[in-house]
Amino acid sequence: TGRLQELARCVAWSPDGAHLAVGFVGGFLGVYDSKSMLRLAWHHRTSETIGVVKYSPNGRQLAAGSHENHIDLYDVKQNYHFRKRLTGHSSYVMKIDWSVDSKLLVSNCGAYEILYWDAIKGCCVRASRDSTESDT
After folding, report:
1. Residue 78 φ then ψ, to 5°
2. pLDDT digits (tens, 9 = 90+) for 61-82
3. What per-residue string of b and e applies to 14-41 under the rule 16 or more CB within 10 Å gives b?
4. HSE toward the beta carbon, residue 125, CA cutoff 13 A
5. Pick from 60, 57, 101, 99: which is nearest to 77 by CA?
6. What is the reported pLDDT for 5?
7. 3-state percent helix, strand, coil for the chain, nearest multiple of 5
């Protein structure tokens, strides 16, 4: 406990501060108790780097963006059970953000695509490719 065994790439705190999600270079996703650093969940659903992780504002979902051009959604309340894979980017996922109500997700990638997702249904609802818009 207290020491990560893989090379970490990104981290995110759960909204209540109880959990710490960590994306690793080898494609692993780990979730830890923030006080004890005991591992609560461990997934290896991709072989490429997990470059970004982000909890939904309501704390019910965790999104993990990979260098394999997709985002995996996990159900926090069901012990981080894998829920859905969001595909559509043509390059590695760089950033993820949630709407305040936790229903929509926006992501951008290395090809400057901006995709908007219905996080409940797990489908893309809008796409944009604009270097000016992607810089904001």
Report:
1. -105, 40
2. 999 999 999 999 999 999 999 9
3. beeeebbbbbbeebbbbbbeeeeeeebb
4. 11
5. 60
6. 75
7. 5, 55, 40
- Report which residue type is found at 133: E
Tallying the residues shown for the chain, one arrives at: 136
Phi, psi of 95 (to 5 degrees): -140, 150
Q: Which residue reads 């997990």 in tokens?
A: 50
Note every long-range contact of 36-40, with CB atoms under 8 Å and residues 24 or more positions apart, other chains counting.
36/1, 37/1, 37/2, 37/3, 38/1, 40/79, 40/80
| Tokens found for residue 43 | 């997934």
88 Rama class: left (phi>0) / alpha (psi -120 to 50) / beta: left
Q: Is residue 131's pLDDT more than 90?
A: no
Angle at 75 between CA 31 and CA 68, to 5 degrees: 70
Q: Are 4 and 30 in contact (CB under 8 A)?
A: yes
Per-residue confidence (pLDDT) for residue 134, from 0 to 100: 47
**Cβ(51)–Cβ(23) below 8 Å:** yes
